[in-house]
């Protein structure tokens, strides 16, 4: 029940690099409106990679797709030219001299309609201003201080970009330390970000509990969420704010998530298996809209993921926030983001996907961590369905009718790409089996977690 739209293109394949998943791939970005410089993800400055390169290509900030090439140490200009040529050839992007001054976000070839969501148009993120009521950004972490500085720096850059756009409200950044084993995270915030980041501690473990702690403390009328292993693009918050400003019916906005690094076999395998892209075209989902599909209320994985999502604060609070029996840190392992999207839709609001709102994600680096994660994806999806039915028992009959079509769509979405090696294909099949087994475990794990929390003092 997960829709995926992938526009990775093999451009300028490296003649000397071995065709092995063990070869690291450097991730960069290139804007065709300023093609003289290749940059690192998350606004971290110029990049001059040597070896295999995967690049997010943009035009005036709008993501077009990803292409691949080979970089040579000391020749960043040659890499920029190769990537620009690849984007023109493989993605249909305008040749650099012919790039229009004010482009619209391009439509992805064969972009689905109807059940996949209605296409939508939106102004460029640079026109956005911070809403008068302000915007809150919540980042939850647990004993991963080594990742935090890059993440927090990137979020602050995004906040500065939004507030610099013109008069409006303020942006606050809240870091929720979830059941920490020591004071390292609190010390980092106090020493490096005094007055810029609000530190909160949620002693009970669980991502949903941590997010609810941030939601309760948020002062902004909009509340965005990302993860401690993610890097926010400088225009991330501006794109989210623009989507909310464009339509008062929008209750939730998600955005594009692309890899921040592809250094290890596990990271590359995850991109092949699932990736984190939802496509290059803006889309809206609303259950009352013409063409809404029968699976829309259940297949919320196609809407986005928790590393890149924002809500109207009052709406999310009215809906009860995140179910504490779902999410990382519980036996249910996940599903809290999918349930939140589902609740926004069933409450009659729109979930909007805007690819201009970019977050870069650092995937799990080891194969063991990847297998644990993929198993958790299946468990979390099953837990989400159980949680949705607990809230709306009348949906059970409808869901049972939709399961065969959903299972077919899920199977098609996990077919190994033809370019994979035999080893890749075996690994991908193993991951698919692992996720499928996890799906069956999700409902009983969710019910167990609810009983466990019910009998725990303060468990909710």
TrEMBL record:
**Source organism, top-level taxon:** Bacteria
* Biased segments, Basic residues type: 1-10
Locations of Low complexity compositional bias? 110-128
Q: Which PANTHER family match?
A: GALACTOFURANOSYLTRANSFERASE GLFT2, RHAMNOSYLTRANSFERASE WBBL
Report the source organism.
Kitasatospora cineracea
Transmembrane residues, as ranges? none
Which InterPro entries does the entry link to? Glyco_trans_2-like (IPR001173), Nucleotide-diphossugar_trans (IPR029044)
Pfam family name, one: Glycos_transf_2
User: What are the leading ranks of the lineage?
Assistant: Bacteria, Bacillati, Actinomycetota, Actinomycetes, Kitasatosporales
Name of the molecule in the record: GT2 family glycosyltransferase
Q: Which GO terms describe its molecular function?
A: glycosyltransferase activity
């Amino acid at each position: 029940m997960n829709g995926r739209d992938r526009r990775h293109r093999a451009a300028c394949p490296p003649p000397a690099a071995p065709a092995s998943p063990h070869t690291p791939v450097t991730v960069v970005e290139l804007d065709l409106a300023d093609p003289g410089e290749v940059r690192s993800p998350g606004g971290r400055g110029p990049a001059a990679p040597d070896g295999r390169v995967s690049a997010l290509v943009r035009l005036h900030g709008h993501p077009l797709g990803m292409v691949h090439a080979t970089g040579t140490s000391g020749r960043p200009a040659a890499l920029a030219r190769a990537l620009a040529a690849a984007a023109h050839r493989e993605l249909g992007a305008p040749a650099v001299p012919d790039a229009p001054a004010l482009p619209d976000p391009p439509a992805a070839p064969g972009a689905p309609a109807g059940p996949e969501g209605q296409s939508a148009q939106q102004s460029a993120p640079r026109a956005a201003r911070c809403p008068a009521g302000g915007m809150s950004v919540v980042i939850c972490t647990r004993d991963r201080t080594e990742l935090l500085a890059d993440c927090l720096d990137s979020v602050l850059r995004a906040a500065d970009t939004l507030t610099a756009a013109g008069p409006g409200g303020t942006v606050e950044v809240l870091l929720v330390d979830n059941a920490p084993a020591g004071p390292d995270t609190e010390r980092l915030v106090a020493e490096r970000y005094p007055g810029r980041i609000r530190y909160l501690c949620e002693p009970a473990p669980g991502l949903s509990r941590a997010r609810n702690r941030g939601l309760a403390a948020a002062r902004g009328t909009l509340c965005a969420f990302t993860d401690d292993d993610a890097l926010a693009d400088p225009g991330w918050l501006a794109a989210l704010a623009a989507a909310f400003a464009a339509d008062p019916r929008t209750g939730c906005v998600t955005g594009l998530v692309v890899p921040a690094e592809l250094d290890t076999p596990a990271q590359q395998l995850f991109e092949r298996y699932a990736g984190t892209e939802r496509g290059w075209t803006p889309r809206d989902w609303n259950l009352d809209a013409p063409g809404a599909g029968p699976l829309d209320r259940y297949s919320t994985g196609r809407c986005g993921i928790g590393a890149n999502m924002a809500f109207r604060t009052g709406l999310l609070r009215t809906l009860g926030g995140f179910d504490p029996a779902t999410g990382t840190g519980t036996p249910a392992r996940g599903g809290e983001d999918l349930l939140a999207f589902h609740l926004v839709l069933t409450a009659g609001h729109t979930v909007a996907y805007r690819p201009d709102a970019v977050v870069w994600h650092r995937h799990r680096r080891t194969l063991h961590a990847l297998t644990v994660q993929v198993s958790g994806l299946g468990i979390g999806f099953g837990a989400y369905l159980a949680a949705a039915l607990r809230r709306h028992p009348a949906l059970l009959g409808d869901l049972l009718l939709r399961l065969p079509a959903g299972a077919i769509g899920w199977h098609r979405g996990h077919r190994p790409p033809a370019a994979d090696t035999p080893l890749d294909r075996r690994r991908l099949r193993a991951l698919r089996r692992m996720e499928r087994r996890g799906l069956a475990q999700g409902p009983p794990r969710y019910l167990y977690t609810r009983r466990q929390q019910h009998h725990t003092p303060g468990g909710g």
